[in-house]
Amino acid sequence: MYPLEPEHAFRIAKEAGFDGVEIMVTNEATTQDPVALNEMAERYGLPILSIHAPVLLLTHFVWGRDPRVKLAKTAELAKAVGAGSVVVHPPFRWQASYALEFLSIVRELSQEHGVEIAVENMFPWRAAGRNVKAYAPGWDPRAMDCDAVTLDFSHAALSGTDSMTLANDLGDRLRHVHLCDGSGAIGEGQIFDEHLLPGRGREPVAEVLRMLADRGWDGSIVAEVNTRKAKTEAERLEMLRETVAYAREHVAVDAAAEHGSPLRRVIDAIVPGRQS
């Protein structure tokens, strides 16, 4: 829902039929306030299931400039609002000292605060016709020694990575999903992070969701879609309802129940569409 305020996002998430929300910490004070967030979660009957750390360029000064402190405060906030998961991006390459300790910091803070910190898959950046290494130790968490990973379909598309291959390679380390879609890789005409509605791109989104349900996966599915093209509130609501319907169709709740797994949770993300 960014840049709309959390109150707006809770309301429209309720109307669209989501089960809960993910909060991205931004410059907006309410996203940093556990008392205000808990009040809204109770009022709208939507639990906060995950917190996205302030790791974007637009949140560079939120909670200071020390990335370790920012991640620690995110974990503290998650615990305070009852969220079991924290989403974090790999460090930028120019955050050299943080990058060297990143994986040990993630594991240490996860154990200290009792929350799952899931490292998100990213993608190469493009400049002057060439791919640029923007993240360290890299954009692909498959090569990282971390216990939990977030799979973002739009990021997978931009990196030229098949989402099904990525999900299978991650195995039990895949703990969180950002539900969206993408139409192609950087260098194939794409230059920005699309976050299309699921089913409107080229990623095997439906197949991955069915695979996860069939194996009894119990993580959270967060709708992280770009709704900025919506000209009215009604159009935005329709886009979100379409996303919910797509997810519920393909997580195969009935099949999952046969495996004795819990009902899949589909949740709405309060995050930027282009840069998330």
From TrEMBL:
Keyword Zinc: no
SUPFAM superfamilies hit by this protein: Xylose isomerase-like
Residue spans crossing the bilayer: none
Stretches assigned to the Xylose isomerase-like TIM barrel domain: 10-242
Keywords: Carbohydrate metabolism, Isomerase
Highest taxon above the source species: Bacteria
An example molecular function term from Gene Ontology annotations: isomerase activity
PANTHER family attached to this UniProt entry: HYDROXYPYRUVATE ISOMERASE, PTHR12110:SF47
Protein's recorded name: Sugar phosphate isomerase/epimerase
